[in-house]
Amino acid sequence: MVPLATTEGTLVASINRGLKAIYASGGAISVLHKDAMTRAPIVRFGSAVRATQLMLFVEDPLNFDTLAAVFNRSSRFAKLQKIQCQIAGRNLYIRFACSTGDAMGMNMISKGVQYVLEYLQNDFPDMEVIGISGNFCSDKKAAAVNWIQGRGKSVVCEAIIKEEVVRKVLKTNMDSLAGLNVNKNLIGSAMAGTVGGFNAHASNIVSALFIATGQDPAQNVESSHCITQIESAQNGKAIYIAVSMPCIEVGTIGGGTQLASQSACLNLLGVKGANRESPGANARQLARIVAGAVLAGEVSLLAAIDTDQLMTSHMKYNRSSRDVIQLASTE
């Protein structure tokens, strides 16, 4: 079961059909290959020379263990993984990446960054901190740095769907479905100049799941970065479908996860709260669930478009003959 908070009835029906197709073909497999929240403060010096000196110091592998020790003192769960810099004139943007346990981790990483900045000012007293976030993070914005390097959880979810299932459940054929994916999700998105938008409607599913499970809805922007692939498989007897999502930003503790309804949805999924035996495991599992739901939504919507059922489905499931306002006023 996948909890969704949405006013779009067709979305629920579509994901249900996609899940049915995947289940009937043996299920899906997901892999989480990166787990690191990021924060990038902006600091300024009197000259580009001094900014470069700090950049070289921060990125020197010989200094990483010292900086990591300072950063990691800020939390039991915060573990610094990487520091990357970009310079613009006398401004330096320092992108910190760290694991954050089962929390989404924005507050956690910001605290660790503050510790490091205070430490660096001992050796660089002329460093001026302009802001704890310099938009090189990049939070709640479509950004190439997130699309390429990832932010939060990076997940790939894949499935093999049999030809019979494509025909009977999705009501289309494999060649047509794969062709539509190329022409719409890949070429069409390239024509639009998208960043991370090589998909049919990943944000639909991400938003509905985020609201249902108490995530930050605004982080749907980068969490919906996704590329959908559909290819022939098993000598033409099935299709291979995959979604690659490098920026799923989720947590199972803190924030909206503590609300009653959202907490119940997390409990339904078996990922409520912190995993005490394996810190971070619950949040990672939630990210995999998000990717799996997106996989189902992608294959179903593409099938609906391919068979010209998109409009009729919306008319059927998104319209009601009942006057909800009038019903509410009479109860």
UniProtKB/TrEMBL annotation:
Pfam families cross-referenced by the UniProt entry: HMG-CoA_red
Protein name per Swiss-Prot or TrEMBL: hydroxymethylglutaryl-CoA reductase (NADPH)
Top enzyme category: oxidoreductase
Compartment annotation: Endoplasmic reticulum membrane; Plastid membrane
Family from the record: Belongs to the HMG-CoA reductase family.
EC number in record: 1.1.1.34
Record flagged with keyword NADP: yes
GO molecular function: hydroxymethylglutaryl-CoA reductase (NADPH) activity
